[in-house]
Amino acid sequence: MNHAQADSLLGLLALDAVEAPDLAPLQAHVRGCARCRAALDRLRAGAGALAHGLRPLVPPPALRARLLASLAPLAAPRLTRSSQGGLVDAAPMAGPMALAEGSLVQAGPKGRLEVQFPGQAVAVLMDGARARLQRWRNQWQLRLEAGQAMIHVHPGQPFRTWTPLATVQVKGTWYFARVDSQDQAYVCLCEGWIGLQGPGLKRELRAGLDAWPEHLAVTLTRRAGRTRLRPASPEHPHPATGPVLDA
Amino acid sequence: MDWEASALDRLTQAKDLDAFAALYDAHSPLVYRICSLVLRDEQEAQDVCQEIFTKFWEKPGAFDAGRGSLKTYLGIQARSRAIDRLRSRRRREKRVALAPAADQSLESMALRNAHPSGPNALDSAQQRQRREKVLGLLDQLPAVQAEALRLAFYEGLSHSELAERLAQPLGTVKTRLRRGLGRLSTLMGPDREEWL
């Protein structure tokens, strides 16, 4: 396409009105022609102004909700509240903040620290508990390295917590996990379904079945390199009885 | 740093959903308006609007602040994708052009009558001011140029569709658009940067 031919099509190009047979050669010419690029920029300024002539129209709220729900599992977790201090990557928490993959968060020695996983869950680390935030497939997971955490899962959403003994995949309302040592952990599910997976262990348990009518609790121990599971007495702190988090 | 630059930074650096939601709230009314005008179909307009913002979420770095405002960038994306969708639909339906329905006449799409203000209409003082200014600029163009611009911009017609709709040779259509845009750009004068 020569310069004169390209020049005659620039107005159409600025308005995305050029049809397929002419589009590729026109774009190729413009890429290599400074005069055409300058002219196109000027024409696009005029086209851009036309958008400002429109009266805005707020889209339906359902679209906003759908969009945010679809993106939530990809969004950064947020450290939202704490009491009695808290650390993020060994630095004192300065206030609510977004957390990146790999961040290490730690509650104060007698404090609590709340991490929100948008669209998935809210985790509250307690009494010096330490956890790292990780991606697992297309979701976030909590790598609980030490101490205890309460996890409230959004209805219908799965959420995974890693412990040195097993990963805990839950569909439920809320549950409690604690790492006592590298060889012992404790998990209490208050409602719903739980999947446990570790060396030599793969179990699915449901609250209300499997002989645990409610508050399903298990202790995980390591013996000969394998994770063992045994029933335990529920000993989770109820959220309503815990200290209130500072906003 | 203004709130928009700060939100964009939080989105780019940390995939902050709250920052994204604030940007969506600020710019989706224009994006949705453009999609609705081009597509004339509520469901398709929502689909394209969602597609645009999902892509913006995935690649916020594709927006270059040195080349214009975020509003203009998203507006261009909206128009471009809505037109793609429209042309794809037309190919499927094997229709070259859609005649406007009675309630979707060119007159009803004219900028000053684009839609009555309703509960959904968001219209800040600045936006009102800009809209009035665009209307004023278009009024200064010859009517045939303004009509060609409206058809191309808001209906997303391709060049052969424009020629057919206007019953004019292709060369005439090219000239009207080129002159109309050039004149519009000139009339914007030194304020041009503010619009982008």
What does this molecule look like?
The complex is a heterodimer of chains A (about 250) and B (about 200). Chain A contains four helices and 16 strands. Chain A folds into two domains: about 5-50, no CATH class; about 75-240, Jelly Rolls (Sandwich), CATH 2.60.120.1440. Helices cover about 20% and strands about 45% of the residues of chain A. With about 250 residues, chain A is of the alpha+beta class. Chain A has a 16-stranded mixed beta sheet that branches. The relative contact order of chain A is 0.09. Chain B is mainly alpha-helical and about 200 residues long. Chain B folds into two domains: about 1-95, RNA polymerase sigma factor, region 2, helix turn helix motif (Rna Polymerase Sigma Factor, Chain: A, Orthogonal Bundle), CATH 1.10.1740.10; about 105-115 and about 120-195, Arc Repressor Mutant, subunit A, CATH 1.10.10.10. Helices cover about 70% and strands about 0% of the residues of chain B. Chain B contains ten helices and no strands. Chain B has helices at about 5-15, 15-40, 40-60, 70-95, 105-110, 125-140, 145-155, 160-165, 170-190, 190-195. In chain B, helix 2 packs antiparallel against helix 3. Chain B is globular and about 50 Å long. The chains are: A alpha+beta (about 250), B mainly alpha (about 200). The interface between A and B is large, with 45 and 77 residues.
* The named CATH superfamily of the largest domain in chain B: RNA polymerase sigma factor, region 2, helix turn helix motif
CATH architecture of the largest domain in chain B: Orthogonal Bundle
CATH topology of the largest domain in chain A: Jelly Rolls
Q: Could you spell the SSE succession of chain A in H and E letters?
A: HHHHEEEEEEEEEEEEEEEE
Low-confidence spans of chain B: pLDDT under 50, at least 5 residues? 95-122
Distance between the termini of chain B: 18 Å
- What's the CATH class label of the largest domain in chain A? Mainly Beta
**Strand portion of chain B:** under 5%
Which structural class should the secondary elements of chain B be placed in? mainly alpha
Proportion in β-strands of chain A = 35-45%
Percent of residues of chain A in helical segments? Answer: 10-25%
Report the structural category of chain A: alpha+beta
Overall body shape of chain B? globular
* Coarse morphology of chain A: elongated
- How many domains make up the 3D coordinates of chain B? 2
Proportion in helices of chain B? over 70%
